Amino acid sequence: MSVITIEKITRRFSDGYLLLDEFSNVFKDKEFVTLLGPSGCGKTTMLRMIAGFEKPSTGEIRIDDMVVNSDKIFVPPEKRNIGMVFQSYAVWPHMTVFENIAYPLKIARAPKAKIREKVEWILEKVHLSQYVDRTPSQLSGGQQQRVALGRALVAEPRVLLLDEPLSNLDAKLRESMRFEIKEIQRELGITVVYVTHDQTEAMAMSDRIFVIYKGIVQQVGGPTEIYRRPVNQFVADFVGKVNFLSGEAREGRVELSGMGQSIPYQGPCTGKVIVALRPENINILSPKGGSGAPVLAESPGGIRPGEGRLEGRLASQFYLGDVNDCRVDINGEIVRVITDSFSYDDLKEGQKVSLSLREFIVYQDDGSGGAGIVT
To answer: What are phi and psi of 236, to 5 degrees?
Structure first.
């Protein structure tokens, strides 16, 4: 059992700057938790406080039943039984793969036979058995990161902490490593706290995502909830691609500012509103045919059935292989649409198109530009 309990953790610097404000939650046993947010939001600081590399200003952290941080207690990192993988691989350049992974066990003075048994076991898990005698200079970036992961896991820690471990890898390696880390976590049944600013990583790997902005948790939820039901504009914008359209909600519709068009809406917001419309939730109706009836989603009030159509002109399209990334001009306002790559052959720049909206979200426009951001 490896449960992390965080109660009202605050981190304030000596100059008074508040980096993290009363973070409280429970990370469950065997859960993969991601702290997601932009640089400077406090996510890495939270991870370092769990690890014991930084002390909170106030609050308490427990790992299982052991208090590791409080006003009166501080347990040093080496006594917390945690594994940590950093953004930089931090592997010993003069050691072989075997020696790097065995290092924590040697420090703990484990018997040689036990060291070999455990290292060989973890080499299998991180797919490095064939590289056992190589040094880091003979490995790729992804292989070096797996060495760091193996070293963190070999001592069988209660908790694994990962601080943006994939940010130095190229796009293809990042994608493969996401799934490898998740598979290892599932197989070992270990609690993981993962820090990243990459929303794709968070979506692919997490059981729960904590979206943080300026030291405040904006939303907590699973990938589907965070993506399809963002509680405010910051979450909608940070997690995925989105068009923000201003308008006014009245009499069952939203009149879109500057477009001279409207869409149906039966939610609770009235007056000035912001419509959040994800590019992949828009169908371009090509001249050759139509589309099925769409479903409009409104959050946080729920899902509303109906049909939303907009008329415009295709300003540009970009063939990306797997998708067609389009820009549609609606009376001078540009709407991004991501659609099937095969539509690239049917559509022509400059032609008139109809847009069918499958899902959108309406926020009350309070004039702050944040639409309910918690501060």
So the answer is: -60, -40
pLDDT per residue over 300-313, tens digit each? 333 333 468 899 99
Question: What pLDDT score was predicted for residue 287?
Answer: 54
CATH of domain 242-364: 2.40.50.100
Phi, psi for 155 (deg, rounded to 5): -85, 10
Phi, psi of 209 (to 5 degrees): -120, 135
Give 49-108 as a DSSP string.
HHHTSS--SEEEEEETTEEEESSS-B--GGGS-EEEE-SS----TTS-HHHHHHHHHHHT
Tell me, what's the pLDDT at 301?
34
Cβ proximity of 8 and 59 under 8 Å: yes
- Torsion 295-298-300-301 (CA) sign: negative
Residues of the chain predicted below pLDDT 50? 289-306
Give me the residue spans of the domains in the chain: 4-237, 242-364
Asked if 183 contacts 215 with a C-beta cutoff of 8 angstroms, the reply is no
pLDDT digits (tens, 9 = 90+) for 78-94: 999 999 998 887 889 99
Q: Provide the CA 130 distance to its chain's centre, in angstroms.
A: 33
What is the DSSP secondary-structure string of 172-234?
A: HHHHHHHHHHHHHHHHHT-EEEEEES-HHHHHHH-SEEEEEETTEEEEEE-HHHHHHS-SSHH
Q: What pLDDT does 290 receive?
A: 42
* C-alpha closest to that of 306 among 317, 319, 297, 314: 297
Model pLDDT, residue 370: 67
CA 100 to chain CA mean position, Å: 30
Which CATH fold would you assign to the domain 4-237? Rossmann fold (3.40.50)
Among residues 234, 272, 279, which one has the least CA distance to residue 256? 272
Provide the whole-model pTM.
Answer: 0.89
Eight-state DSSP code of residue 250: E
Q: Which residues share a beta bridge with 328?
A: 314, 335
